[in-house]
Design a protein that fits this description.
By secondary structure, the protein is of the alpha+beta class. It is built from 13 helices and 13 strands.
């Protein structure tokens, strides 16, 4: 019977099999790098200590040799061999030396001025230095214990618990006391190690070697060479002590790895559960989609397998349907500028929606055009009616009033009464003329909007007493009747608003024609108004509507300091 393993366990095992080797490799690299850094730091520190002690020992030897030479010279000035200072001795015949002076005998056998190591001739293991000088066929010698060198070597600053510095002679025997075998004479301890061999050949270096105890140590080695003295100097530290931080780090690293491994296992199973959970949701979503219930949140899955392909296919399907639904909703709310990206060239649903969008756009354009045409026709009808009324008042009422005036003049009436009637009649004739001009200014028909506004400004300024400054510049081709009438009515509305509501004392107005447009500017210093809530009347609405019909742009800015109206209308058809 085949065992059924849930997919979440498979996924968890896959994650663990990937994470664990990575962690092991990363930990190994970190451990190796840390160990390498520790080794390099220890060797560098030992090299510094070895170099410092070498300099101190060489300085000591130079100083002692200088003192010896100075003593010989001072004694020579007083006349050798009469008297000598301190430990200086004159040796005329080495063969006649007593056994107690055997060290001097060994020193005379060198037969060369210099400083010599006599430790190999002693049983106590003391570090003895022999100073030898020739003066007129006489040998001057001096033998001293170099306890100062022992003190320099025993200084353990920076060398831990197992670190030591020591000297080795050319016979591979120690010259300084061993830290580990303090009771044994140094010259009884053989130190024939790799470090000593390299140092005696003149090589300065550092390495991990085995010392004279056959213990792994970090060693820095070099050679001291002065006046016949040739020693190998070594500064060493046990590997176990140097690697103590590595052991601590290793234990911590193991604990961290165990903790990470536990967290990885828990996280892997948790992640597997989270990733597998959409499979259950897939069935629910597919069932809901079959019933027309589309999810608002698209399921995401990035696995590169068949299940991942299913999720991606479902994602694409849900995304496409949601996009289509969104596009359909936008079209349904008449947002005809909405964009739709077809999923493929065979996206039939998308093609149908785009075709419907294009039809609705065309229908809306026709509707807007019809509405604009109707508004233009309405305004044109109003202007025609104004013109008809103006003609009737001019051609009908005007002659009647003129005839009435002539009849009154021929009547025999009291002078005062006759003058009063004539004044009333003159005022009536003036009012009829004003109304006739307001309905359809003849100057607008004959000379265009600039001249008509000039006459309107003069009449308005005279009647209201307001200072109105008007300028115009007409340099282009003649304007159409529709533009002339539209600008005139807008200017007329602006003047009426200023006279009735603003309480303005000064008005500036200009009309400027450019190559492809005409500009209208109006400014007063009145009280201003709220452009969003202008109050009763349709003045602002009429101005904006007339400007829109002429495909123009109008901006009305009002504040307590006054009102500014700027408008531009294209003149190119």
């Amino acid at each position: 019977m085949r065992v059924r393993i849930p997919i979440k366990f498979k996924l968890a095992l896959a994650i663990i099999s990937l994470v664990v080797p990575f962690l092991l490799i990363l930990s190994a690299l970190f451990y190796w790098q840390f160990r390498k850094s520790i080794d390099e730091r220890v060797l560098l520190q030992l090299s510094s200590i070895k170099q410092l002690k070498s300099v101190q020992i060489e300085d000591y030897l130079k100083q002692e040799w200088s003192v010896f030479v100075q003593e010989v010279q001072q004694s020579s000035d007083r006349g050798l061999p009469q008297d000598l200072d301190g430990d200086l001795r004159i040796i005329k015949d080495p063969e006649s030396l007593p056994p107690a002076d055997s060290l001097y005998y060994y020193l005379t056998k060198k037969n060369q001025i210099g400083l010599y190591d006599l430790s190999e001739y002693t049983d106590s293991g003391q570090l003895l230095l022999g100073y030898y000088f020739l003066e007129d066929d006489l040998a001057v010698a001096k033998i001293l214990e170099a306890e100062k060198i022992q003190e320099i070597l025993l200084e353990r600053t920076g060398m831990g618990e197992t670190g030591e510095s020591y000297l080795v002679g050319s016979d591979f025997l120690l010259r300084s006391r061993s830290r580990f075998f303090p009771e044994k004479p140094p010259n009884s301890i053989l130190a024939k190690t790799d470090g000593v061999r390299q140092a005696l050949t003149g090589t300065n270096g550092s390495a991990l070697i085995r010392d004279y105890r056959d213990v792994p140590v970090f060693s820095a080695f070099g050679r001291i060479d002065f006046k016949g003295i040739q020693w190998a100097i070594l500064s060493e530290l046990d590997q176990d002590e140097a690697h103590q931080p590595i052991l601590v780090m290793q234990n911590r690293l193991v604990l961290i790895l165990l903790l990470i491994l536990i967290l990885t296992i828990l996280g892997a199973f948790l992640l597997a559960r989270v990733l597998v959970k959409p499979l259950v949701r897939m069935k629910e979503n597919l069932t809901g989609m079959a019933s027309g219930n589309f999810p608002e949140v698209v399921i995401k899955d990035s696995r590169n397998d068949e299940i991942g392909d299913m999720f991606r296919a479902l994602d694409q399907l849900v995304t496409s349907i949601l996009q289509t639904l969104h596009f359909a909703d936008e079209i349904g709310t008449m947002n005809l500028s909405a964009e739709y990206r077809m999923q493929s060239k065979n996206d039939r649903l998308g093609q149908a929606l785009i075709a419907m969008q294009e039809n609705l756009i065309a229908l809306k354009k026709r509707e807007e055009q019809m509405q604009l045409t109707a508004q233009k026709s309405l305004l044109q009808g109003q202007e025609n009616e104004r013109a008809r009324l103006a003609r009737e008042m001019h051609d009908g009422l005007g002659p009647l009033l003129t005839s009435l005036k002539m009849m009154i003049q021929r009547m025999t009436l009291d002078g005062a009464e006759k003058d009063r009637i004539k004044k009333i009649l003159d005022d009536t004739i003036s009012e009829v003329r004003r109304i006739t001009y307001d309905l359809m200014p003849q100057a607008l028909v004959d000379f265009g909007v600039a001249a008509a506004l000039n006459h309107l400004v003069k009449v308005t300024a005279k009647a209201s007493g307001i200072d109105i400054k008007y300028t115009y510049s007409m340099q282009g081709k003649p304007l159409s009747d529709q533009i002339n009438t539209g600008i005139y009515r807008i200017a007329q509305e602006a003047l009426n608003n200023a006279l009735k509501h603003s309480g303005a004392r000064e008005i500036r107005m200009s009309v400027t024609q450019f190559e492809d447009r005409i500009s209208f500017y109006f400014e007063d210093d009145g009280r201003g108004f709220d452009t969003d809530h202008p109050g009763p009347g349709n003045g602002l609405v009429n101005m904006r509507e007339r400007c829109r019909i002429l495909n123009g742009i109008i901006n009305i800015d009002s504040s307590p300091e006054g009102t500014v109206i700027e408008m531009e209308i294209p003149t190119d058809e």
